[in-house]
Structures
1.
Amino acid sequence: MATASARAARLGRLERPALTGVLVREVVNFSSYWRSATFSSTVEPTIYLLAFGFGFGSLVSKVAGYSYVQFVGTGTVATAVLFSSAFPAMFGTFVKYQFQRTYDAILAAPVDTEELVSAEALWIASRAGIYGCVPLLVALAFGLPAAWGMLAVPLVAFLAGFGWACFGITVAGFAKSIENFSYIVSAVLTPLFLVAGTFFPLSRLPRWAQVVGEVNPLRRCVELVRHAAFGWHAWDVARVGALVAFGLLMWRVAIYAMTRKLID
């Protein structure tokens, strides 16, 4: 009764103390496992960069006007963002509400589902903004020319990471068991990962694959990072808008999915 009265007395949505409380809890909790999380989120994309960059790079010297190492080095940022946002959001969210009952404890405080989802997504996106820069730093060490535009890469990674974090929370909210994630990884994330323009240009793919690539939010991240390194394009404002729209859409869907799940 006291909890219900406290919530009824609240005036606004997304109140700063509630968001801050959830974020501080995540930071404190992250300090106990940051090594393993950082390892899994950065090493695999870096291996992709080194394997494809130097493997195919020995066979293909230029792709779309760039050296292949530079092409893959900028594109792999999106891979790191995906690995450090969608996957932790899916598995972490499901474990927290299904097994650990962490969300039940948080919602007993003056925090609602909208604030909980928003804080979780912001935290995961912040990590993705940092982890996404690791492949770029590796590419710089292997010959990618430095450019002032690269300072925008953490922001691009954050925007993309927020959308994919909300996507992962949505999946967790609708999933009946953790085994259901296999369908999403195999049927959704893997195809989108392959048609994002990370490892090869989309112009030589079948028309249907090009269409999928053009509506792929991960593709927008790849393009913006690549343009940050090699020069901005006129349509990049629209690409940023597309990432923002994707993030806002998935944010609202994630809130709906988790509200439905936690009420049940």
2.
Amino acid sequence: MKGGPVAIVSASGSGAIEQAAARLAAGGLVAVPTETVYGLAARADDDGAVAQIFATKGRPADHPLIVHVLGRDEALAFATGLNDAAERLIAAFWPGPVTVIVRRAPGRAAAAAAGLPTLALRCPRHAVARSLLMRCAQEGIAGLAAPSANRFGRVSPTTAAHASDEFGPELLVLDGGACELGIESAIVDCSGAAPVLLRPGVVTREQLEQALGGPLHDPDEHSPAAPGTLESHYAPRATLRLMSSQEMRDALQVLPATITGLAVYSRTAPRRHPLVQVMPDDPRAVARELFAVLRAFDAKGVKLIWVERPPDTPDWEGVNDRLQRAAAH
């Protein structure tokens, strides 16, 4: 990784954005906050720089990345064009937590796309991410490839400290505070004849369909590979078990309160039980804190995490997706 140890730098500090942009322009890596999670960024037009992302994360090179851009015009630098579905989603949700997969322009961001003819594009709304993209544009950088700033398959980072803990002081981390949303963007494949929801997020399926003016389809064997869609992902070091509310209550009734190595995250379990951390009733509040809660449990050294399964309703789809993949580890 290029450059000496610098660890966490306040994004509001003098010269911080310029320092980060210079490192990116030179082919280095920077951890940057977005409204969803912190990303491990490299300039998307430099396949060598992007290769560092894969190597640093331990991410398979055939697992594509999301390229972050300032807006629609910058997206066109990477795409052969934008169809009606992509245009509608961009108009409704950019800047924001929705990623569109489009047909990739030949010769652009090949490493970020894992060699696929499609590319995932997102326009973040976080002020620090946007300031960095603006500064990078002055350096001739049209976009930044930026998957989550964590080891591949593990819990995503929602604070600067999380990102620094993952990779150590050699990585420049722009500290922009805790992420507002807490789980990754929704991903919609707009590269085919009909839009397909590949990964749910905080923006609900209903909101996406309202913007599209029609239904979203489910992925099939012809859908392109997309970030964060492996069966096992977002996993803490501890084993995570999903339980119904009744299973949770029954188990806690017979469990000694003095047991060690176990943590519980529940909406309905007795709140005074010493093992229980209360899960909010609001899905957005859970999304905001979920990865931080799992990281805190890991920091305590627990070996097993019991999580009460949230309601199976559209507003919980993004949280349920992350929990199911975390439990599959």
3.
Amino acid sequence: MPVHWTISHPSRLVMAVTKGCVSVSDIEKYFAGVTADGAMAYAKIFEITHTPEALSDENLSVLGQRVVFYAQHGQVGPLAIVAASDASYEKASVFAAAAKVSRPLMIFRELHDARRWIETHKDATAA
């Protein structure tokens, strides 16, 4: 599976990593899985460094609009995107621009920086 994720209900945190060829369908499966497990409002760390060319800017915009849809029908949690390479950082920026919803979102080059930031923002979504 190109998108691997784990959900910690006690920590209210979703950790996801992409590897290999990733399609819009793969990301939609991630959205569906997180929603089905009741974790859409949780904080998320999404690491995309190893798949910078996986999705076109158009597809990233479509996925960003999907997040807007989710936000209209419930809360979406803060998101830290880890994009260590220049190419993955550019892709993360395209997604972030399309996923304009009321939630904290930051792009990081290092996982430890993303973890530190998400810890300061995840309590804002605690139920």
